[in-house]
Write a structure and sequence with these properties.
Layout lengths: L1 E10 L2 E11 L4 E5 L6 H8 L7 E6 L2 E3 L4 H7 L1 E4 L11 H5 L14 H14 L15 H14 L4 E5 L7 H16 L3 E5 L3 H7 L2 E6 L2 E7 L5 H9 L16 E11 L7 E11 L3 E6 L5 H8 L7 E7 L2 E3 L4 H6 L2 E4 L3 H5 L6 H6 L7 E2 L3 E2 L1 H15 L15 H13 L5 E5 L7 H16 L3 E5 L3 H7 L2 E6 L2 E7 L5 H9 L3
Parallel strand pairs: 3-8, 3-9, 6-7, 7-8, 13-20, 13-21, 16-19, 19-20
Antiparallel strand pairs: 1-2, 1-4, 4-5, 9-10, 11-12, 11-14, 14-15, 17-18, 21-22
Amino acid sequence: MLIAKNITKKFSGVTALNNICLELHPGKVNAIIGENGAGKSTLMKIFSGVHTQYEGSIIYNDQELQFAGTKEAEQAGIAIIHQELNLIPHLTISENIFLGRELTNAFGMLDKKTMRIASGKLLEKLNLTVSPDTKIAELKVGQQQLVEIAKALFCNAAVIIMDEPTSAISDKEVDNLFSIIAELKSQDKTIVYISHKLKELFTIADRYIVLRDGCTIESGDMEGVSQESLIHKMTGRKIELDHRTAATTDTILLQVNNLTLKKSAGLHGNVLSDISFSLFEGEILGIYGLMGAGRTELMESIFGLYPKLATAEIIVGGLQQKIKAPADAIKAGIALVPEDRKLQGLSLGQNIKTNISITILSQLQKWGFVLNHHKEVALSKKYINELGIKTSSEKTLAKNLSGGNQQKIVLAKWLATKPRILLLDEPTRGIDVNAKAEIYKLMKTLAAQGMGIIMVSSELPEIFAVSDRILVMAEGELTANIPVAEATEAVILKHAIHKN
């Protein structure tokens, strides 16, 4: 269906793609595999008309094409579900789905009713139980990702590119997506699938294409390929994911009692109800739940983001804290690495140095009001070295780094505050297996030094690999508190689906 011949793409002299050659087959799920920075997203942006300047050629349906923009690519039958959500926050779901392809009636006016009905059917197909009139800004990241999928399905495209489509949705939504992909395959659609979740690829993919450092390494059928060999093809080395060796003490670092979060003004009921738990010094506490369980809201409530809606008794190191704003949480020794690093964690247009130093500016001043440039540079270089951030300089803009390196910057800026408690909301979302291993290693090192870590994750293997204890949530309530040695996947899922 689509052939790439010698595709080369450079950004400011840096080669992102180097003579890429590959084939995408119809009626198949073609998995594009590689570490962050391998060139996967850049190549997909060329296929979908986002990047229009490049060397080489694209053969689509036996014709050589070069798209002038995304509109041309869509009209030709190529749609993309971006890893970084491409939605307008203050428009409704329906308005986003039909943006640029609005339906009009006989009088030339917008046919809102027809668009709303069509959007509702797409949402129903994806089991997303919200109104098409809901604004995107009111949805969680996982729900927004389903809207992105709905947009692509609406195009009725021949080639559908899915860039990390499951990075923010739960296992239930993943199963639903896989059913939709199976239906699209039966219609002879060409599915391009990018994911760092290798287990998914063995479930859904028919073929694999490995990219490394902007080059094509190998392609073939998924049948008969092992996970270890795929990782080796991606990285050129073997990645070891050691299981957690607990360094927990009996000292309670954080105690949360009776945390309740009300729904926003005008809505009845609670988002979170009567949640109580403790976190020990040196412990990694995993939190698991399906989409909508309230995991992110729990982290944000502890961090002081809902002062008018949340009530709780929060005790840090034996002292009761009044946390009415993030500044109070930081002062108490709590740091939050948010789920959406690009929207909430980084200033993408600023460089690494500025992003890392922003949390402790008062400590980097001289004469009480001037920023000490030498201290700022020293701080950024310290974390670039300690966390292994791949960059030529601390002056590199955050937006020009891979997802894994961006996540390390978010971690660095919070580690600079020297927190006692680190809250991690989906810390490895959308990053490759090697970057994941590095973040796991960092978490274990910090815990061994006495830090208490709470990690929210949608991936059960990740929860099992790094946690000492697992809390399970369902519908805004805590449904289980299980030592990892006693936990099984079946038990966790049982508690995630049903409230006690």
